[in-house]
Amino acid sequence: MKKESAYPLMFGLILISLLLLLSSAYADENNSVNASGSSSLSQVQNLSKIQKGFECLKTKIGSDCSNAKTIQELALTILASPETKSKCIEILKQKKFSSDCWGEKSCSIRDTALAILALNSVGDNTNKAEAWLLNRTKISSDLIWYLEQDSDSASQCKISYSGKDYTVNAADNKKLDSSAGNCLTLAQSNFWLRVSPSCYETEFQVSCDKNFIATLLYKQQNSPTIYVLSGTESQPAFGTISLKIKAKCFSTSSACNYEDSAWAVLALLKTGHNIEDFVPYLIAMADSNKKYLPNSFIYMATNYENYGTLLIQEQRLGNYWQADSTAYNKFYDTALALLALRTDSEQVIKAKDWILFSQGSDGCWKNSNSEIIRDTAIILWAFGEGGGSANNAGVEYCASSNYFCIPTQDCPENEKLENYFCPGTSNICCMNEHLVSCSAKQGQICTSGKYCDGLEVRASDTDNCCLAKCVEQTLESECEAMGYICKGACSDNQEEISYACSSGMCCRTKTIPPSTWWIWLIIVLIVLIIAVLAFIFRDKLKLLWFKLKNKIKKEKLPPSPSMSGGFPPRPGFPPVRRFPPMPPQRQRAQDKGIDSVFRKLKEMSS
């Protein structure tokens, strides 16, 4: 008779229990995944993702930073985390094109400016490079300039320049009656005087016989928008106002370069130079250079809050920035916008969530393989104070030291802490925050049901002071109401679903099951343990199985009529006739007779 093993049943029971436990754990893990990606990640998750970004950046640049091929990549990597990139700093210094500037094939204004920002972040002296930048400035010929004087009534004014005086009369309707030499000719329906390009470096003196104001105005040649130069002055009758064009740009050739000028302005601002002369060029030429996201540079350079509002209004789908015909991509442009918008406004929070949601599985941000280091580094720079508490380069972080990164002009000179690092370019570390009320900032606090259609800043009475308009909240799209996200195009780790969006398509995270190799490893280990235990206690298991099998068989047998009590008669059937048991003596006799019959048969067969 073949013996039955106890292993199959026990193994089956244990395996089923194990699989139920694992499936429960797997379900819990899947339930924890944010399928939509539209809600804000927790602070712990954010820090984990940012740390993963730093780990990926370190892997991409290599242990010796040799994979960062360009000066832009080296500088942005240092700016992302200045305390951990000593090898990159060394390589950046070695890449100087000359003793004063940086560039790949020749001295580059942008690369030199980025190098200044990077080295300044670790406390290195960049005086020579700053001087080199300042020697690459010129008066922009791309702008048209006007001189304006104004009085409450008709007046007579004397305009002097180059050693000559010219008299100009202004009527009650503000119109002028004549030009003022070769440098100043009547323009704009005789309300202003246009400055000749040959006189852009000339200083003008204005004096009138009535209380008056005088200023310079400028515009781009192909734009109708006219800007007023900051610092408009007023004087009483016969007082004098001096005016000089301030419209410098940066160039290594005959023409100004907008991106070069923008980065150079930020580098000089960060190192303590007056950048007032360069602001008109950045502002007036913004419309012709939208591919560089100019409002981000202007806002960083000036902290003019209307440019912060304009920048926020350029956000796409409430998630990211991508300049028209951008010179880079949406990762780079979004990071540039976040460098400028150091607020906790709803738009900034959504942009940060979008960046973290768009992070690659390896921790980097990838638009193309050639841009991974650059884009990942500028994103990490935009997110703030680096990837850890290490302080290998002796860098002290402003916020970590319980001080405040605020606009340079808002911090009194005796409170500026030059030796502490602030991630932004227009900010300085200050001993105190120096907040004023929202009303003092000419802002407003949006009531419930409304949101700020522009820049929000901190104030002494609120963290959400709106410097633009408070507008009614619009209803969420069907996609957003379901907890998903509307985008221009779904990313690689997303899939499109059929919910309606006000614009773009509805995207959700692809359901990608986590790796299960560890589950099978656990199963194999458990099976091996069970097999070893079964072998050791095989005798006891056989006995247990034998008893269990007999018990199951006995439970399945129907009760015998001879058993006490029996079954009651079933309806419709005749009663079962019962016979008394055979007496023991007769039964033994009968058994004895049967034994003799078998004995005789055995003898006959032998």
Characterize the structure shown.
The protein has 606 residues and is of the alpha+beta class. The chain has four domains: 43-137 and 251-394, Alpha/alpha barrel (Glycosyltransferase); 141-246, no CATH class; 397-480, no CATH class; 481-509, no CATH class. It has 17 helices and 23 strands. It has helices at 7-31, 43-61, 71-80, 86-94, 109-121, 127-134, 258-270, 279-284, 294-302, 305-313, 330-340, 346-357, 372-383, 478-481, 517-536, 538-556, 584-605, and strands at residues 137-139, 143-151, 155-161, 164-170, 184-187, 192-195, 203-208, 212-220, 227-228, 233-235, 241-244, 248-250, 396-397, 404-407, 420-421, 427-430, 450-452, 456-459, 462-466, 470-472, 485-487, 494-497, 505-509. Strands 2, 5, 6, 8, 9 and 10 form a six-stranded antiparallel β-sheet that branches. It has a four-stranded antiparallel β-sheet with strand order 4-3-7-11, with no helix packed on it. It has a three-stranded antiparallel β-sheet with strand order 21-23-22, with no helix packed on it. A hairpin with a 7-residue loop joins strand 22 and strand 23. Helix 5 (109-121) packs parallel to helix 7 and helix 9 runs antiparallel to helix 10 (305-313). The chain is elongated. The two termini are 29 Å apart.
